[in-house]
Structure of MarR family transcriptional regulator:
Amino acid sequence: MDKEALFQQFVAFTTSVHEVTFELTKDVKPEDITPLQYSILEYIAVSQPVTLSQISECKHISMPNTSRELRKLTEKQLCEKFEVPDDRRKQLIRLSESGQAMMNKAFDQIGARFFERIQDLSTEELKGIHHAITILQSKVFDENK
Amino acid sequence: MDKEALFQQFVAFTTSVHEVTFELTKDVKPEDITPLQYSILEYIAVSQPVTLSQISECKHISMPNTSRELRKLTEKQLCEKFEVPDDRRKQLIRLSESGQAMMNKAFDQIGARFFERIQDLSTEELKGIHHAITILQSKVFDENK
DNA sequence: TCTTTTGGTTATCAAATGATAAGTAATGGG
DNA sequence: CCCATTACTTATCATTTGATAACCAAAAGA
């Protein structure tokens, strides 16, 4: 097995993934939201409720900057902070109703483009894709190395 | 075949890919080079020789900004511009020797991390991965939809 | 030839992001 | 109870990036 060739293929593949996700998500970010803020909202949408520290760590943003962006997002009424009873230093973040609506709309658009992209594939092929993703996810892109 | 579930899996997968590529490439960008400049160099490295317009289009950077970043890169002696005989408006960009050396070093580091990541896998598993990437590349992440 | 288009440049400005220092309040461990 | 640590905030500054206008020269088309 030629590992070097596999690496080449891997690099080309990740490039394609970045390019395609760019295509799928472009223009879905609503007006007056910065890319960074959108990516934070995306993370909250998937993982809520989350703490500031979690956002900071997972998105690789320093705590001061995370705090700043989150203030802006709450000012825009897109998410809300809740105190957590057992540790009054922490705060749990959730999308607000309008924030949730916004992200639902965004995901709908992305989904529509995704379905368009796979529309011509047979059930067999879709199964193959599901299987391929499962393999890669578990063997190469798993978080714990 | 539940397309909705496949979409969920797809989203989680692309997130993992972004995360892993971040881990693989972090700290490989040499001092005094901005992220944007690094990504341009990466593109040149893979696709050289390229024109300014190609960089602009593929990396989604406006021509003025592409021109600016490229000027900085040539000032840093990391790439070189060549005139193209049959159309004197165009310029072909290539990595300079030191630019090539820099990118080789970066790719070596990334490769080392990649190999570490797959070191415990059997030949069978590696073949499976190769196959999985081939499937996804052709059916989902192909450029022409 | 005249005009339009293409490929690229320069200059300038605004906005987004990153980095750092300093501070508060709550928690937890001795 | 004291001290260190955690979670988060505020303020400030530098850098990076994005966006726009105005420009030049070569090429291509009528």
About this structure: The mean pLDDT of chain A is 93. Chain A has six helices and three strands. Residues 51-53, 56, 63-64, 66-68, 71, 87, 89-91 of chain A lie near DNA strand D (CB under 10 Å from a C1').
